Amino acid sequence: MSQLSFSFPRKWILKKPDSFRELRRSGLRLREESIEIFYRPVAGDVFRLGFSTRKKLAGAVGRNRARRLMREVFRLHQHEIKRGLECLLVWHGPIRGVRYRTAEIEIMKLLRQGDLLK
Fold first, then answer.
1. What is the pLDDT of residue 9?
2. Domains of the chain
3. Average pLDDT over every residue of 29-56
């Protein structure tokens, strides 16, 4: 029996603004109260993610917290998500007082809606 790894490799992270723009323009979109996911299928066993927040959302601390919450949900649920995807998560709702569980429920709901779970 092999033990699952919950690491989050750097090669999974989308960082370039062009990648974000391309996903927004040509990707499929799912939206909930606080989070929006843009995604598109890609060839192979690739799995890449980008995390973004709106500038008017909060100060730097709030925006960083939102990105950390989204990244943690994906890290812990990575084995349930289909491969062959590029995703961009954008936090656009309020962050003050939001707990991990709230972010988890919203993201998992979006992933189910988009049929992005195994």
1. 83
2. 16-113 (3.30.230.10)
3. 91
